[in-house]
Specification:
The complex is a heterotrimer. By secondary structure, chain A is α+β, with helices and mostly antiparallel strands. Helices cover about 40% and strands about 20% of the residues of chain A. In chain C, helix 6 packs antiparallel against helix 19, helix 16 runs antiparallel to helix 17 and helix 19 runs antiparallel to helix 20. Classes of the chains: A alpha+beta, B mainly alpha, C mainly alpha. The structure holds heme-A (2 copies), dinuclear copper ion (CUA) and copper (II) ion. The site of copper (II) ion has 5 residues of chain C, from helix 8.
Chain lengths: ~300, ~200, ~625
């Protein structure tokens, strides 16, 4: 599901190739060392002779100095090449995304060419296939680490600095990513998905995301919106186009278009959504959203409303 | 098997001081403290290198006057320490008492001056990273001077009671060694805290 | 004076006071060393049980055996205790016990300081574990990164306990280090020039030097964190101009050498044990010493390889990558020197040798994954995943714990006077060997499949379930193996075959005295002419020793650093309770900081008064 050995980008493929090389050489080294050890012990059993110093020194020099030296040079040179390809950024990004590590979810902001934020979402990043995307990684709390194994190595989100990460997926698909730096209670369920799609689909998606929330159409949905705005929800969540502008939790403007809830912990279905709102703590103990006991009618309305936020 | 003595240790002195393991132990302690010092100074420069301005906008570097006087006082105290040891090597317990006593006195003056002039630093410890590291280094040295004072006060007391002799002076030798360190280490701290923000 | 009478006086002089209260006054190195070892193994047991709890929790997806809060405390305590309360102290304990015996002296240079270090360690370690019982253990991981460990995100007691107790326990490591350095450099038997020192002593010496230069940075970093937490400074608070990465640099500048601190003494053990079981000197003594020294030096230039993902400049990091891969050379030289030592010898595969053969297999695999993670691009993938967890358990268990258990079987007869059971040793070895591989091998794959470390559970869709289950099963074997050795050690105390002075026919000086050694270690200080003194004396009826040391007080012969020429005589102090009292008041001061900063001042003065009591010259003042 999320694997460094199933690369979907050139960078990840290079790293995976490096791994297979290193694995092959290492296997050979382990086998060689153990074989020598076995021969050493076996010769003794057979009453063989102790080594005379000369061949012994040759073994030490070849195995203990030359082999690691050659291996080191090979690894270092190759790694610097790959590393350079990963960090070097001569390309114009086709899309720039700010990703902010929060406890324990991801805020995602798309920029236009002028650097202004055009759309804010959470826990789901869409990228056009075959185009370089620049991710600017931030944190305003603790350190997190952004990692989509199929696409790229990880990069930390360190408060007080911005780290850049380039993603250039070469095939479409949905790739899971996960926070890789321990960041507190719910580090385990701080995940997200990356949706790689054809450029046109991507543009269409981005246009939708940039738009404000849909208005409720039915009375039930309208009541749901009132529940949302009257209750505690708006203190923490933003729904663009309404008076809800909270910043503690994820932006919910297009909640219904997302595939997962609670940082890719549960699928985004009505049932899970209802369970989450009623009692987030049983889904994700320690999450920074309190349980909200609502009368069944209100909850039903709220769910109906949230489902309209496509 | 029979043990045949081939080396006779009965003639070796039982009163070594510069060859005594304790002397080496104090060298070890000083080495550890030097590593701590190096870490603090490295932290200072690391924070400085990453800060947009150092000291931060609107903060003046620490005032020079009293800190420079303290450099002189500490060097004097190191000298009186040396003099005390010179005395006991000439069998003078009174020079020893006087010398160590003077060192304690000089260093106490340093502490008092430091204490009443903490405002010289021109920054509070909770004013961001600059204030924090400046206070931490100053505090680190303050505590060391304090420990050297209380330790040497005990040496003075023992000396006054006539414990130390030319032979039995290990305590004086190692205390002096530590004193040199405490007095000497102020110089790099002084240069870093008081002069680097002025020069760069 | 007839020899027996003089021996009785010597015995009387060096004996430790009996009784419960007497226990708190012991200062002899063998007492202290043994306590270090036993305490460290007790902490190993506890930290190991925590490891098993983690394995149980992770054995299948979405297990709710341990919640996130508890799991986070448990992995933090597991890692911290394994590194700070088990691995370092157990190596120090072996060094404290063995080094004076091996270099032919009667005690360490500063016996009271030694005792002080032990109590500090005991109190710090017990407090640390107690926090888990009260549910307030630290929960930020063994490297305790800020800002997570800062006041804002970890307001509770837990991180406070981590910072104060770690600083406190480091004090004990530092005292042991200085102690070892001075003892090794100044108290060697006459004739034991540096190039005749047993390799374990070399390893202990280099370990001690590394402690001296590495530990201060973790003391500084945790002190700065204490200041941040207690006095509102902002070293690490980014919004106030602080630098979270400063913590990482300081921590790893210590943390990397730390992993070699627990590795080098283990290498020294291997180099000491192999010659005994091949009955001929080790191959390439000088190369082995140089490799130890080189590892020690290079290890101070590697710390950034723990920070490859933090966004440092690529060029600078490449330097650390190169240094990290090059450290394979000193390891490789040692591996092949040992193979050459074994080549064609009639090796008797007793339990200690079994564990050393196991070392080869497990450590080499771990070392090679070390070289892999040293590659920056590859590390970007596997950093903070189970791949790294696999790497370090392979190197630590293979590289440190295997030789340590070998050492346990090897020196147990010397310490207890009885042999451990070979049969149980064999069972234990195979359980541990299979257990390690079954537990930790699948973790490589888990890491590559995207499983981050420090997660209390995972979704079943991730597909990590089966391999975790295998790992947990392996951990059961692994712990069974350690329990067999524990049972073996306990059982053999009473029922083991009597060992005699030199059951393995070894060449180093600890075997030239009774098992267990008398309080004075060696009846006479031997004079050494080669690297294998005990073999030199084989078949002879006399051996050269030092005469003229007084029996009626604790006298140690001080020799020169390079050639071990006799220089002076040190009169070592007698048993005393002061180190204990000092350690107690020091710990009051340290633990008090968690309540109020004023305890620092209180602790300072209390410790000072106990030091005065400790060092105050008692009348009659010594005249000769
Ligand atoms: C006993 C402890 C020990 C030892 C000996 C080692 C040995 C090595 N370690 Fe390991 N390491 C740890 C304990 C140890 N490590 C721990 C505890 C961590 C994790 C900390 C944490 O994050 O919690 C860690 C993490 C760690 C990292 C950071 C990974 C990450 O967090 O992303 C790196 C990266 O470079 C690394 C590298 C190495 C290297 C290159 C060696 C080398 O010294 C290995 C050298 C040995 C060999 C290579 C085998 C023998 C040689 C031959 C047989 C010759 C032939 C060889 C070749 C041809 C190559 N280690
Ligand atoms: C010395 C170091 C050491 C040792 C030996 C071990 C041993 C073990 N470790 Fe440890 N581990 C670490 C150091 C060590 N670990 C560190 C530093 C971390 C990182 C922590 C962090 O992320 O902050 C870690 C993390 C870690 C994790 C990852 C947690 C996570 O990231 O979420 C896991 C998971 O499986 C694990 C499991 C185990 C297991 C099953 C053992 C087993 O080998 C344990 C088996 C042992 C026993 C069950 C005890 C038996 C003992 C006796 C019976 C007494 C013996 C007495 C005599 C022999 C006389 N460890
Ligand atoms: Cu965010 Cu781990
Ligand atoms: Cu390292």
């Amino acid at each position: 599901m999320q694997s460094a050995l199933d690369p979907a980008s050139t960078d990840a493929a290079r790293i995976a190739e490096l791994w297979w090389w290193m694995l092959a050489v290492s296997t050979a080294v382990v086998v060689a060392v153990l074989a020598l050890l076995a021969v050493a012990l076996w010769r003794g059993r057979r009453g063989g002779q102790p080594t005379s110093p000369r061949p012994a020194w040759s073994m030490v020099l070849v195995g203990g100095v030359a082999a690691p030296l050659v291996a080191s040079v090979a690894v270092v040179v190759h790694s610097i090449q790959i590393g350079h390809a990963i960090v070097a950024a001569p390309r114009e990004p086709a899309v720039t995304v700010d990703v902010i590590g929060r406890r324990w979810w991801w805020e995602v902001r798309y920029q236009d060419d002028g650097g202004r934020t055009i759309a804010t979402t959470a826990n789901e990043i869409h990228l056009p296939v075959g185009r370089p995307a620049l991710l600017r990684l931030h944190s305003d709390n603790v350190i997190h680490s952004f990692w989509v194994p199929n696409l790229q190595g990880k990069a930390d989100m360190v408060p007080g600095q911005v780290n850049d990460l380039w993603l250039e997926p070469r095939q479409t698909g949905i790739f899971r990513g996960q926070c890789a730096e321990f960041c507190g209670t719910q580090h385990a369920f701080m995940a997200f998905v990356v949706v790689v799609e054809p450029e046109d689909d991507f543009r269409a998606w981005l246009r939708r995301e940039a738009a404000p929330a849909a208005s409720p159409e039915s009375p039930l949905e309208a009541r749901g919106r009132d529940v949302f705005l009257a209750g505690s929800c708006r203190a923490c969540h933003t729904i663009r186009g309404t008076t809800a502008t909270g910043r503690t939790g994820p932006d919910l403007t297009h909640l219904a278009s997302r595939r997962t809830l609670a940082a890719a912990t549960i699928p985004n279905t009505v049932g899970h959504l209802g369970g989450w709102i009623a009692d987030p703590q049983s889904v994700k103990p320690g999450a920074l959203m309190p349980p909200t006991p609502l009368p069944p009618e209100d909850l039903r309305a709220l769910l109906a409303y949230l489902r309209t936020l496509r | 098997m029979r043990d045949v003595p081939v080396i006779d240790a009965s003639g070796l002195t039982r009163f070594a001081h510069r060859r005594h393991p304790l002397w080496w132990g104090i060298i070890g302690l000083v080495t550890i403290e030097m590593s701590v010092t190096a870490n603090l100074i490295a932290s200072y420069f690391y924070l400085a290198a990453r800060a947009p301005a150092w000291p931060p906008q609107g903060v003046a570097p620490p005032d020079l006057l009293w800190a420079s006087i303290n450099v002189v006082l500490l060097l004097c105290s190191a000298f009186t320490m040396w003099w005390a040891g010179w005395g006991i090597n000439r069998h003078s317990q009174s020079i020893l008492t006087l010398g160590t006593g003077l060192s304690v006195l000089l260093a106490s003056v340093v502490l008092v001056l430091r204490w009443i002039n903490f405002t010289d630093l021109n920054v509070q410890w909770n004013d961001g990273a600059y204030g924090a590291i400046v206070w931490a280094i100053t505090g680190f040295h303050f505590i060391h001077v304090a420990s050297a004072i209380v330790g040497t006060a005990v040496v003075t007391l023992l000396s006054w009671r006539g414990y130390f002799t030319k032979q039995r002076q290990l305590g004086v030798v190692v205390d002096t060694l530590y004193w040199y360190f405490v007095a000497g280490i102020w110089i790099p701290f002084y240069l870093v805290l008081y002069w680097t923000p002025r020069l760069v | 004076m007839p020899p027996d009478a003089s021996r009785d006086i010597l015995y009387e002089t060096w004996q430790s006071p009996p009784g419960f209260l007497g226990w708190f006054t012991h200062v002899n190195q063998r007492m202290i060393g043994k306590r270090f070892i036993i305490t460290a193994f007790a902490f190993f047991l506890m930290a190991g049980v925590l490891g098993i709890l983690m394995r149980v929790q992770l054995s299948f997806p979405q297990n709710d055996f341990l919640g996130p809060d508890l799991y986070n405390q448990i992995f933090t305590v597991h890692g911290t205790a394994m590194m700070f309360l088990f691995a370092i102290p157990v190596m120090e304990g072996f060094a404290i016990y063995l080094v004076p015996l091996m270099i032919g002296t009667r005690d360490m240079a500063f016996p009271r300081l030694n005792a002080f270090g032990y109590y500090v360690y005991l109190i710090g370690g017990v407090t640390f574990f107690a926090s888990l019982l009260f549910g307030v253990a630290p929960d930020t991981g063994w490297f305790n990164y800020v800002p997570l460990a800062g006041k804002e995100y970890s307001p509770g007691l837990g991180v406070g306990i981590w910072t104060t107790m770690i600083t406190f326990i480091e004090v004990s490591a530092l005292t042991a280090a200085v102690e070892l350095i001075v003892t090794i450099l100044k108290l060697r038997a006459p004739g034991m020039a540096l190039n005749r020192m047993p390799l374990f002593v070399w390893a202990a010496l280099i370990m001690a030097f590394m402690i001296v230069f590495a530990m201060p940075s973790v003391i500084v970093s945790s002190s700065l964190l204490i200041l941040d937490r207690v006095l509102d400074t902002h070293f690490f608070v980014a919004s106030a101009g602080g630098e979270p990465l400063l913590w990482q640099h300081l921590f790893w500048f210590f943390g990397h050498p730390e992993v070699y601190i627990i590795f080098l003494p283990a290498l020294g053990m291997i180099s000491t044990i192999i010659p005994t079981f091949t009955q001929r000197p080790v191959f390439g003594y000088t190369a082995l010493v140089l490799s130890l020294v080189a590892t020690g030096f290079i290890s101070f230039g590697l710390w950034v390889h723990h920070m490859f993902t933090t966004g440092l400049p690529h060029l600078g990091m490449s330097f650390f990558m190169a240094a990290s891969t090059l450290i394979a050379i000193p390891s490789g030289v040692q591996i092949f020197c040992w193979i050459a030592s074994l080549w064609g010898a009639k090796v008797s595969l007793k339990t200690p040798m079994l564990f050393i053969v196991g070392f080869f297999a497990v450590f080499v695999m771990g070392g090679l994954t070390g070289v892999m993670v040293a590659s920056i691009p590859f590390d970007l993938q596997v950093h903070d995943t189970y791949f790294v967890v696999a790497h370090f358990h392979y190197v630590i268990i293979g590289g440190s714990v295997f030789p340590l258990i070998a050492g346990l079987y090897y020196w147990y007869p010397k310490v207890m006077g009885r042999m451990m059971s070979e049969r149980l040793g064999w069972v234990s070895f195979w359980l541990i060997f299979l257990g390690v591989n079954i537990t930790f091998f699948p973790m490589h794959e888990l890491g590559l499949d995207g499983m981050p470390r420090r997660v209390y559970t995972y979704l079943s869709e991730m597909g990590w379930g089966p391999m975790n289950m295998v790992a947990t099963a392996g951990a059961a074997l692994l712990s069974a193996g350690f329990f067999v050795t524990l049972a073996n050690a306990l059982w053999s105390m009473k029922h083991g075959a009597p060992a005699g002075d030199n059951p393995w026919g070894a060449a180093t000086l600890e075997w030239a005295t009774t098992s267990p050694p008398q309080p004075y270690n060696h009846r006479n200080i031997p004079v050494v002419h080669s690297r294998t003194p005990v073999w030199d004396w084989r078949g002879r009826d006399e051996r050269p020793v030092v005469g003229g040391l007084r029996e009626d007080r604790r006298e140690l012969l001080v020799t020169s650093v390079l050639d071990a020429e006799p220089m002076v005589v040190q009169v070592a102090p007698k048993p005393t309770p002061w180190p204990f009292v000092s350690a107690v008041v020091a710990s009051l001061g340290f633990i008090g900081i968690l309540i109020h900063p004023i305890f620092f001042v209180i602790g300072f003065f209390l410790v000072f008064f106990t030091y005065v009591g400790w060092f105050w010259p008692r009348r009659p003042w010594r005249e000769d």
